[in-house]
Structures are given as C-alpha cells and as structure tokens.
Design brief:
It is a single-pass type I membrane protein. InterPro entries: Cadherin-like_dom, Cadherin-like_sf, Cadherin_C, Cadherin_CS, Protocadherin/Cadherin-CA. The N and C termini lie far apart (about 210 Å). The protein has 3 helices and 47 strands. It has a 5-stranded mixed sheet with strand order 38-41-42-35-47. Helices cover about 10% and strands about 40% of the residues. β19 and β20 form a beta hairpin.
Length: about 650
C-alpha cells in the first residue's frame, strides 16, 4: 500500500531471487494493483527445503521510495525419490553347519524423502534359498534361518528388495559364499574285490580296488589310506581317488588261511576324520607241502611166532595243505630183505598207515629188517616223503637147548674114562650145549638128573663141567651112567637131556669087558630096524602114508639143521685139544688120543699111543652170551670102521 497518489503511488513489485517464482501483477478498478507470486519452476525439497524471498514494492516518485517484505517458503516433501541401496551387490560368507541366527551381513538403503516417504523396509524376494535366510525389515540385518551344507550348495544369491511407504523401491543382490568345515569323513566304495586268492600269487597282485570320496574341500578333502599291520598286503594310489590293495609278499595258506584286511582312510582336516572298511580274504590252497612224518625214523618190536596179519604199529604223516592236497596215502616202497621182497614180510594200509605182518616171524631166522614207507598226498602233481621203518623181532623161548657134546650117536659108543687114581675135582668131561634163542632164553644151566653113583660126580651149574666130588676107589663100578639135564632160563623153560657114559678104569681091557653088552644091543637094534623096513615094504597100502610121514620128518630135520647151522646163534662143539675156557671155569691143557683095536673074537688088543688130535679154536664173542660156530669138524679117532667101541681118555 502507498498513501501517495498519482505518480508517487505504488508503481511496481520486484521479487528476488526469482529462480523458482515469478510475480504476476494485475490492476484493479480502484486503481490498486494486485500481485501474486506464481511458482514458475518445480521445487525440490531434497535440494532446497527452505526458500527465502525478498519482495520489494516501489513507487514512481522522485526520489523513488520502496517497501520490502521477507517471504519464507518451506517446501513440503513429496514421495518423489525411491529408496537406494548403498551397494548393488553384497558379498558375505557363512560357515556350513553354522547355527540359526548367525549374522551374515547388513544390507543398507537410503531414501532422501522425508517422513514416511523416507522410511525404508527390507525384504528378501521369494526364491528357493529364501527359507534359509532372514532379513530384518527395518535394519536390513541378514541372518541364517536354516542349515547350510557346503557339500550340497556352496553359493547362494539373494535378491533383497528395499521400499518406502509410498510404494517406491529398489533392489540389491546379496551373494552368500558357504565355507567348508571338515564335517564329512571319507567315503570308501569297494569297486571290485576278490574273496579268494591263491597262495601262489606273486607280490603285486591286485586284490581289491577302492574309490575314496570326501566331499569336503581343500585339505579337508585330501585323503590318505593305510592298512592294518602285520599282513602281507599294501595299498597304493592308482589314479585320483582310486586305491588298490595288492599283495606285498608271498602268501602261505598254511601260515594264515584267512586275512581280515582293514582299510582306514583319513582326511587332513583339523580335527581329522576317518572311516574304515574290513575286507575278508580267503587264501586258497596250492599243493606246495609234502607230507611230513611225525618222526624221522621208526622202530617197532614184534614177538616172533606172531599171527600173520597182526598189526605191528602205525606210521603217521601230516600234510599242511588242505582238502585233497592234504589227503595222505601210504605206500610200501619196493625193496628186499635177504633177497625176498619186503612185501612178503609186511604190508601197509594205504589210508591209515597201519603196518601189518604178512607172515609169522622167526627170531632164529631173521632178527630185524628195515624198509621204507612213502607218504604221498592227493595233489596234482602229488608230493611225497619217505621214512625208514625198522622192525625188530623179539625172541620167544621156542627152542630147547641143543646138546653138542657128548654127541649122541647110534653108530658107536662114546665113553669118558676116569682113572681110579683121580683126585677130588677131576674134570671128567664137559657137557656143551647151546640154545638158538637169545637173551635169558639162551642162558643155560646144567643139573645132574640121574647117576649110577650120585656121590661120585657133580655137574657145574653154569659151565656143564662134570667133575669128581670124592676120591675114586676100587669099589666104584667101572661103568657109570650119568643123565644130565640142560635147561634154559625162558618162561616157561625148555630142557634137553644127555647121557654121559663114564668108564672108571685104569686100563682098556677092563673097560672093554664091561662095555661088550653095548655092542650086542647095537646089533640087535640094527636087525630090528631091518625087519621093520622090510615089513613096511611088504605092506603096500601103507606106502603112501609112510611116504608122507617120511617127508614130514625130513622137512622137520632140515628145518632144525637150518636153525642150528645157518642161524646167527652160536654152536659150541667139544674141544678136547688144548681147550681154553675164556669164561674162567677151567682149562684142559693137554690131550692124548688112544686107538683101541680088537678083533670080533678077541677080548684083548694092542693099544698104541696115537698122535695129538687136530686142534680146534674156540672164539668168544664178548658181546654175546654164547660162542661162535665151530670152525673145524671133529675127526674120528677110530681107524677101523667095524670097531664096536670108541674110548676117549682125557688127562688134565
């Protein structure tokens, strides 16, 4: 308003600054001017919320006068700006198996608007991973709302939407990287394996192939595998994540027929995780072991006169192999005993190894023998081993003593001559006997069973020497007949008897007169034998029976002669010439042989002193109870074959 009028009245208005506003002036009918301030350019509160204007009104007078008004404009907010994220993309990481509620990151967004127009809210767009995460709508804090597993998914991309109250919004991306932890042990997968392997496989043979997987990463996924100790196997890496179990040394089923191979695989994480698997491997047999006998050699004893087929003993061999390879058969190897096949002596059971006697053994014919038994398995090719078996025959008291001297003959009469001047202890003769048995069965003792005069003679119990026990007198009979029994020490004992004729006289004529009746008996026996033979020849229907009897007698005598002369047992003859008794029972240092010649019708004859008889040697075996066989046969001292009497006189 201007109180002046006319030219001095209100003239115009001016507005400064006038960037956004302009003045619009209009004149009224009463002469006044109406002015309006009109918005000429849009306002932006975010750039300038308060605008200060100076409105100046001037008149037209001189000097020109003016009036001013200060106009303060407040720009009100309009929702003309959307929220803006501080970064278009956020990157964060979270450890797998982290607990729910773990803060991952914070999303930040701003809205330059004011008031409700500038209030921002956060939200995760719907996706497959949205359920695992949660964001605070007001402050944008992103937290874990589920379990994340590195082995299932290693990266998550989340779209976070920010919006204001006016409906304007913005979006940003959150990339969540899941970091690995060592939460998975190695997984062992058996790709191929052999349940059975032969024991003759060479070292380096593949037994099992394994695939090892560890879904963890980096060091947590690096795997090392080992086997249990003290087994002949090793594990090797073939290619990535593949391992092979191979034989590391020679296998022996007999040492171990089955192996439990434990494969343990561990990763390099902290702490380390491991897993294991046990593989059972059977070792199949190969025939690589020969049967082995329980002993290096065998000795067995069997008593003579055994029953054929008798079981002697059993040999046993064991084979460390298995099944058919361990099935042992026993075979008697071909050999001979004294030129006779050993199979005629013994047999061997192929399955059990029992040795049987094929025949009845005679100790006097064979004392021991040996043979070999082979044990063979059932493998292919078969393996075998041998063992030596020695059979020792044990003696039985099945043979009576055999009297060697005096010789009991039917052709001539042998008598020992004792002079009447003989002193006490005079050696008349010595009964010599042997027993083809052995040991105590061959220990002989001598006893005087009968005697014409028991008070005159005695027999040495051990040596068989017949000696006088008193002085010979003229009253003693010339003809003395002694019956000596020889017994062995067996159980039961066996015995033999021998008759010793002793002539007590100083001259041969006296002896001849007493022993004439012996010759007559001899002639009578010869005639009787002749008539018996003649009678048997006449009786023809008994010929066959007699022939069988004669053959049987011949066989028996032949067998006895074989026992006596062809066995290894001693045969002791009588040795008058320079007899030496190595057992210390006495000696006969000198001998004289006398030949008595007479005619059939004369009771007297000339007696001539003969030459010394041939000497025999008596050899003693210190390791035996008897003596060795005689090496020189006796020689008859009679020159005339028809002489009825043979007298041998001994002088000590």
């Amino acid at each position: 308003m201007d109180d002046d009028v006319g030219v001095n009245g209100l003239n115009s208005y001016a507005l400064k600054p006038n960037d956004n506003f302009a003045l619009k002036t209009s004149s009224r009918g009463d002469g006044t001017k109406h002015v309006e301030m009109v918005l000429q350019k849009p306002l932006d509160r975010e750039k300038r919320e308060h605008i200060s204007l100076i409105l100046t009104a001037v008149d037209g007078g001189e000097p020109q006068l003016s009036g001013t008004m200060h106009i303060l404009i407040t720009v009100l907010d309009a929702n003309d700006n959307p929220p803006v994220c501080s970064k278009p993309e956020y990157k964060a990481s979270v450890t797998e198996n982290a607990p729910v509620g773990t803060v991952i990151t914070t999303v930040r967004a701003t809205d330059i608007d004011k008031g409700s127009n500038g209030k921002v809210t956060y939200m995760i767009s719907k996706s497959g991973a949205a359920s695992l995460f949660k964001i605070d709508a007001e402050n944008g804090v992103l937290t874990l709302d589920g379990n994340v597993d590195y082995e299932k998914r290693r990266l998550y991309e989340l779209d976070v939407q920010v919006s204001d109250q006016g409906g304007l919004s913005d979006a940003c991306k959150v990339i969540v990287d899941v970091t690995d932890t060592n939460d998975n042990p190695p997984s062992i997968n058996v790709m191929s394996k052999s349940n059975t392997v032969s024991e003759n496989m060479k070292p380096g043979t593949v037994v099992t192939m394994l695939n090892i997987q560890d879904p963890d990463a980096n060091e947590n996924g690096k795997v090392m595998c080992v086997l249990n100790e003290n087994i002949p196997f090793a594990i090797k890496t073939s290619t990535n994540n593949f391992f092979t179990v191979v034989t590391d040394s020679d296998l022996d089923r007999e040492t171990a027929s089955e192996y439990n191979i434990t494969v343990t695989c561990s990763d390099e994480g902290v702490p380390s995780l491991s897993s294991s698997v046990t593989l059972t491997l059977q070792i199949s047999d190969v025939n690589d072991n020969a049967p082995v006998f329980e002993r290096s050699s065998y000795e067995a004893y069997i008593v003579e006169n055994n029953t054929p087929g008798l079981s002697i003993f059993t040999v046993r061999a064991r084979d460390a192999d298995w099944n058919q390879n361990a099935r042992v058969s026993y075979i008697l190897e071909d050999s001979s005993v004294n030129g006779v096949p050993v199979s005629s002596y013994v047999s061997v059971s192929a399955d059990s190894g029992v040795i049987h006697a094929v025949r009845s053994f005679d100790y006097e014919q064979i004392k021991d023998f040996q043979f070999r038994v082979k044990a063979q398995d059932g493998g292919s090719p078969p393996l075998s081993s041998n063992v030596t078996v020695k059979i020792l025959i044990q003696d039985q008291n099945d043979n009576p003593p055999q009297v060697l001297y005096p010789v009991q003959t039917g052709g001539s009469l042998v008598a020992e001559m004792v002079p009447r001047s003989a002193d006490v202890g005079y050696l008349v003769t010595k009964v010599v006997a042997v027993d083809v048995d052995s040991g105590q069965n061959a220990w002989l003792s001598y006893k005087l069973q009968k005697a014409t005069d028991r008070a005159l003679f005695e027999v040495g119990l051990q040596n068989g020497e017949i000696r006088t026990i008193r002085q010979v007198t003229d009253k003693d009979a010339v003809k003395q007949r002694l019956t000596v029994i020889v017994e062995d020490n067996g159980q039961p004992s066996r015995s033999a008897t021998v008759i010793v004729n002793v002539a007590v006289a100083d001259s041969f004529p006296e002896v001849l007169s007493e022993f004439t009746d012996f010759t007559q008996d001899k002639e009578y026996n010869d005639n009787l034998t002749f008539y018996l033979v003649l009678a048997l020849a006449v009786v023809s229907f008994l010929f066959i029976t007699c022939l069988v009897v004669i053959i049987s007698v011949k066989i028996y005598r032949w067998r006895q002669s074989r026992i006596l002369y062809h066995s290894n047992l001693p045969v002791i003859p009588y040795y008058p010439p320079r007899y030496s008794d190595t057992l210390g029972t006495g000696t006969l240092q000198h001998v004289y042989n006398y030949e008595v010649c007479r005619t059939t019708d004369s009771r007297k004859s000339d007696c001539k002193f003969g030459r010394a008889g041939s000497q025999n040697v008596l050899i003693m075996d210190p390791s035996s109870t008897g003596t060795m066989q005689r090496i020189q046969s006796e020689k008859s001292i009679l020159d005339e074959p028809d002489s009825p009497l043979e007298v041998r006189k001994l002088h000590q």
